[in-house]
Write a structure and sequence with these properties.
The chain is mostly helical. It has helices at residues 3-30, 38-44, 46-83, 89-143, 170-180; strands at residues 33-36, 147-150.
Length: 182
């Protein structure tokens, strides 16, 4: 291929690709990004506050039950120490065995409670993240935002190190979330 033919080919490719190049720059200029803090949406929205309050009530009720069981164990232990001198060795071993069984049962209930609580928390977070994602999508589509990033918080993994306040759509997402989840 001659040098003239090569130059002609290159110029033709440039002329054809220039409009595409400028179009892509035009799209880049219109690209909008946003950040959202899902933790804030959960904590500040009306539905999120209700859900967290329900979880707190559940925890409080369970803790009261475990507290009563723990108090009962302390009283039993105190009685065992007071009455131990009156018992034979066989009676002491029997009572101590019964007490150990009660302690183990209590520990098992406490462990089951913690597992149950973790499960409830995970279910709550999973359910609300779906709702928060839907509200975020609605706000982003209305605002022409092409990409929304979870900015994280002190309680969660912080993903965004810096952002301008203008791109934070958390408050709009809270309003949309409240509008949809009454």
């Amino acid at each position: 291929m001659s040098m003239f033919a090569f130059r002609s080919c290159v110029l033709a490719v440039l002329f054809v690709s220039m409009p595409l190049l400028f179009a892509s720059f035009g799209q880049a200029a219109e690209f909008k990004m946003g950040v959202v803090d899902p933790q804030s949406v959960l904590e500040k929205s009306k539905a999120g506050k209700r859900a967290l309050e329900g979880l707190k009530e559940y925890v409080s009720t369970r803790q009261k039950l475990l507290g009563k069981d723990e108090e009962e164990l302390r009283n039993t232990e105190k009685q065992l120490k007071e009455q131990a001198p009156k018992w034979t060795d066989t009676e002491k071993k029997e009572k101590e065995g019964q007490f150990r069984t009660k302690v183990q049962d209590f520990q098992k209930r406490a462990q089951e409670f913690n597992l149950e609580l973790q499960k409830k928390q995970k279910e709550l977070v999973d359910e609300y993240m779906k709702k928060i994602s839907a509200a975020t999508q609605t706000v982003a589509e209305k605002g022409g935002v092409a990409l929304v990033v979870d900015k994280g918080s002190e309680q969660t993994v912080k993903i965004v190190i810096y952002h301008k306040d203008a791109i934070d759509i958390t408050e709009q997402v809270i309003k949309e979330f409240d509008r949809v989840n009454k």
